């Protein structure tokens, strides 16, 4: 299965390389022909006659058949380069397949890491909101504790002030004059209430 996949990949790759090279050659040829169409040939013959006196130009003009041979040689060399390029690509196809596999594996690993980091970020968001909730609860409990301490302090003072002292209990219990006891009791209660009101 792996060999079949490699052969299919190589075949597609070679086809793509051939098409690319053909397209490049076609584009170059079209550019060359459009350039020839662009150049005006009027007066070219007279110019060539004038330039024949120069040795370089005369030798080039005298070698028309050599130029055709040169153009043919260039075409053959281009074909050889095309074949060599395809061979080079074929030689490196195993490395390219290996590289493709490694890149695909790296992509899958990066995708897994992205998923893990996304989950971690979501967990951090949940923990952050839980910490915020705990902080709010802690502040609320702190206020409640403070209020309870204040209430406890006030209640403790109130209870201390309304407790009947043992001497008064003795007077009430052993005294024959209950009116005097009621007066003392009323005064003590009045003092306790006024102490709480003042605070």
Detailed description of the structure:
This is Vps52 coiled-coil domain-containing protein. GO terms for molecular function: syntaxin binding. Residues 88-176 form the Vps52 coiled-coil domain. This protein has 199 residues and is mostly helical. It folds into two domains: 2-125, no CATH class; 146-198, no CATH class. 91% of the residues lie in helices and 0% in strands. The chain has helices spanning 2-38, 44-51, 55-62, 64-91, 93-162, 166-174, 178-198. Helix 1 packs antiparallel against helix 4 and helix 5 runs antiparallel to helix 7 (178-198). The chain starts with a helix and ends with a helix.
TL;DR of this structure?
It contains 7 helices and no strands. It has 199 residues and is mainly α.
Q: How far apart are the termini?
A: 93 Å
Class from helix and strand fractions:
mainly alpha
Average pLDDT rating: 76
Helix content: over 70%
The structural domain count equals: 2
What is the ordering of alpha helices and beta strands?
Answer: HHHHHHH
Total strands: the figure is 0
* Number of contiguous helices: 7
